[in-house]
Amino acid sequence: MRTYLLPKGGSFYKANLHNHTMFSDGIKTPEEIKEVYSKHGYDIVAFTDHDVFIPHNDLTDDKFLALNGFEMEWIAWRGNNPILNTGRCDLCFIALDKDIVKHPVWHRTAYLFGNAVNYRDMVQFHEEDPDYIRDYTPECISEVAKIARDRGFFVTLNHVGWSREDYTYYTNYENLHALELYNGSGILCGHEDYTPRVYDEMLQSGKRIFVIGGDDNHGAAPENPGPYGMGLAWTMIKAEKLEYDAVAKALLNGDMYASDGPEIYDLYIEDGKIHITCSGADQVSVKFDKRVAFSALAEHGELVTEATFDVDPKWGYFRITVKDEHGRVACTRAYFPDEYMK
Predict the structure, then answer these.
(1) DSSP 40
(2) Are 44 and 236 in contact (CB under 8 A)?
């Protein structure tokens, strides 16, 4: 019996799930963002400006899907000044229904910076709620994530490398859907923002979360990316159709992988073995929760386009990495025995 880990049906859609426009600290309008990403083969962009939740459903058409969201940050403060040499936490919240229009955890007067201060009045919120005060603790961050999930948002933990987050914090965050495994702008700036070790630490602390890749762009075009560019890393989402509900369902199911280059075509379990087909790679590897790993390596002058690996539920979860000849990677989420041994 064959068990597909990436759905057999549907299509892959290329998505950037972390994006900033002139509504916060970016330099391009949402319309310009759509134009650039569409030109470079993207199907989906999540608009995640800092703190202000402003839907952009008007940008959606039959070839492009705008997902509505925002990013929220927690920073350690000393009095009225941020402490810049310590960690911080940033989460993105993506609405799972295009008709969600209210910010889930709003503060009427605090936290906005950059251009966002000019768009405060455009934000709808739950007026019956008191102003939400942020505290840089795992308890507060977990509480906000739960409120947002309960109000219909997909929650991601972003750029742990750039944030200089400590494992005693991120392994205690609850109610997340995904880790931003690869942050393109963070990498381009010189930070260690390809973070598979962080992912394993979170999984081994009991989290069942997915992975995404994102640009965290602030407006620079792919042909001249600068430090906050576009087209650096992305998420390939396998969905039935390019519609909001279908893509939201795929996100919740974890039907996606993160990449900055390679492609994964098929991933399934059959006869007790993992099977993967992919674009040409130097190495395809599988890593399990236990100290077990296997690798398929390209022969000299050749490329690997498919691989088969043994699997045993006693080894726990596994995740797969495809690395091409340029060092670029595509990474699956973790799959657990109760998923792959159905």
Answers:
(1) T
(2) no
